[in-house]
Amino acid sequence: MSIVPAVNAWFRANGRDLPWRRPGFTAWGTLVSEFMLQQTPVARVIPRLEAWLTRWPTPSDLAAVPSGEAVRAWGRLGYPRRALHLHAAAVAITERHDGVVPQDVGELLALPGVGDYTARAIAVFAYGHRHPVVDTNVRRVIARAVKGDAEPSPPSATRDLAAMETVLPADLEESRVANAAIMELGAVICTARSPRCDACPIAGLCAWRAAGYPTYLGARRPAQKRFEGSDRQVRGLILGELRASDVPVTRAELDSVWPDRAQRARALLGLLADGLVTGSAAEGYQLPS
């Protein structure tokens, strides 16, 4: 029996009120939200998204400013290369598509920073097309409810999309809702560490529950490295210093952000290589222009 009717009914009654789910939300807003939501909690994204779309309501608006302004506006969302990619995508949309976010998955995949998930999410949630949309939450729900596994195996685009395709109904509207509903179920009910099986709308259909909640014994993804003390943290501190300044920041000023000289230098070199910072010790450092 398909899990979709019960999940869709639950979602229509209980889905969170999020900006990108509201009627009239633009395709550009969907694209920006998907960039921001990558590895970042919803609560942190919403205020930054709203400020971003107020300042740059269209791709052309963002494309008209230097890429450094996108990095500055990104703030502390993390993984700031996403800001550069988003700016580059805005430029590409403006130049190749007359400022209109494309709806074809192939054209979306050709945009900078857009991968399998983001392309299908825009095509489905902004334009209503029928495609499987797979994120970590979807993978977990399918692993448990359909396959009977406590955890999903390591990601495989081919395998994961095929698994979601088998679940997706043929009806266009129901398939769009199913993509959002299964994702929502994984985010708020079928969570990784403390699944709320007592509140799950498909508890009676769940293969993992029916099997007695067996422990997962398969392959796992490598654990994510700690943020505290990492090069990522130092990179963020350097970028924070540059965001706060309208003039180039000297090497001496950057020396104060982190005590480990070698790690600080490594982080700065990485930012320069990624195009997130420009300049030199002689002329100072700043966000790209």
Keywords:
289 residues, two-stranded antiparallel ribbon, mainly alpha
Structural overview:
The chain has 15 helices and 2 strands. By secondary structure, the chain is mainly alpha-helical. A two-stranded antiparallel sheet has the order 1-2. The N and C termini lie far apart (56 Å).
Topology of helices and strands:
Blueprint: H1 4-14, H2 27-37, H3 42-55, H4 59-63, H5 67-74, H6 81-96, H7 105-109, H8 116-126, H9 136-146, H10 157-167, H11 172-188, H12 207-210, H13 231-243, H14 251-254, H15 261-274, E1 278-280, E2 284-286
Number of helical stretches of at least 4 residues: 15
Please summarize the sheet with the most strands: 2 strands, antiparallel
Strand order of the largest sheet: 1-2
Report Rg: 21 Å
Tell me the fraction of residues in β-strands, as a range.
under 5%
Give the SSE string: HHHHHHHHHHHHHHHEE
Describe the structure concisely for a colleague:
This protein has helices spanning 4-14, 27-37, 42-55, 59-63, 67-74, 81-96, 105-109, 116-126, 136-146, 157-167, 172-188, 207-210, 231-243, 251-254, 261-274, and strands at residues 278-280, 284-286.
